[in-house]
Amino acid sequence: MTPDNGTDPGRWPMSDGFDGYAPRGGDSPGLWLGLSIASTVCCCLPFGIVGIVFSALAMGARDRGDAYEFERQIVRARGWTIAAMVCGVILAVVYSLDR
């Protein structure tokens, strides 16, 4: 088995200096994982949990070197985390207007 030299379009070469960022877009799964946890605690539990799951899947894909799967999962993590934050803000506004 030869080492991956980056010729496969679905993978990128791994090295000890891999900084954890996507080759395109610059999203870090650690960022979305942290925001997902915060949105779970503060905003919207169900959507935040889904964001945590997709962030963890993105981290696993990144560690395997699977760029395609990483991109898929990080987009999903971002979407669910943003949805949790938006729902939390909407619920807070509705609650404050109700008082």
UniProtKB/TrEMBL annotation:
What InterPro entries does the database record attribute to this sequence? CD225/Dispanin (IPR051423), CD225/Dispanin_fam (IPR007593)
Transmembrane intervals: 31-58, 79-97
Q: Where in the cell is it found?
A: Membrane
Region entry Disordered, spans: 1-21
Q: Which UniProt keywords apply?
A: Membrane, Transmembrane, Transmembrane helix
Q: Name one Pfam family in it.
A: CD225
Extract one GO cellular component term from the record.
membrane
Q: Does the keyword Endoplasmic reticulum apply?
A: no
Domain of life where this protein originates: Bacteria
Name of the protein this chain belongs to: Interferon-induced transmembrane protein
Q: Tell me what organism the protein belongs to.
A: Actinocatenispora rupis
From the broadest rank down, the organism's phylogenetic lineage runs: Bacteria, Bacillati, Actinomycetota, Actinomycetes, Micromonosporales
